[in-house]
Amino acid sequence: MRKVLMIMFMTLDGRAQFPIYPPPENQEDDEDPMWRPRFGSIDTILLGQKSYRLWAAHWPARKNDAKAGAWEKEFSRFADKAEKVVFSKTLQEPLWENTRIVRGSPREELAVLRKEEGKDLALGGGPRLAQSFLADGLVDEMLLAVFPSIVSKGKPLFRTVDDPDFPEDRIALGAPGRHDFSLREAQPLSDSTLFLRYERRG
Hints:
- The structure is a single chain.
- The longest helix has 12 residues, at 70-81.
- 19% of the residues lie in helices and 26% in strands.
- The chain has a single domain, classed as 3-Layer(aba) Sandwich (Dihydrofolate Reductase, subunit A).
- It is built from 4 helices and 8 strands; from the N terminus they run ββααββαβαβββ.
- Strands 4-3-2-5-1-6-8-7 form an 8-stranded mixed β-sheet, sandwiched between helices.
- It has helices at residues 49-58, 70-81, 106-113, 127-135; strands at 4-11, 42-48, 83-87, 99-102, 120-125, 141-147, 181-188, 194-200.
- The chain is globular and about 55 Å long.
- By secondary structure, it is α/β, with parallel strands linked by helices.
């Protein structure tokens, strides 16, 4: 059965933001343990409308951009070829080739996609869509790039409920909203970003 891989980045304080750093002297060219090893095993990218608009405005042109790096050109060709499934109630027309707009719920769409022949599916953009997938138990693996920064603002990657008066320090197994994963891979990168791959338990 096709797996759903949530491929996202986050800061130490859980924000789905991308801090900008000066490149370190020992940075490896196009270092990417998240997407590149899976270009051949993913054929569908799942996106929310906002992320889709950003991706469609940026990625198609990168493969022919003389200023783009090798990884950007490679990712541009991969993303062009992949089917883009966009969850939106308002987007009227596709903005990129190989795009399909879905009006229904992710749960209903995933029930169909998992049964179809094909490779794995990448949940590639939009923390709100990622939160919806996680809440419904639709994520099989999480691939996270954790940046070594606390940014103190921005979009949270995970949906949480603030409750300063919550009486317990521990959250019981099976508690509402709890989802458990097992660590399968951990790799520090040259810029101190940490790549983590988790697999859903059960």
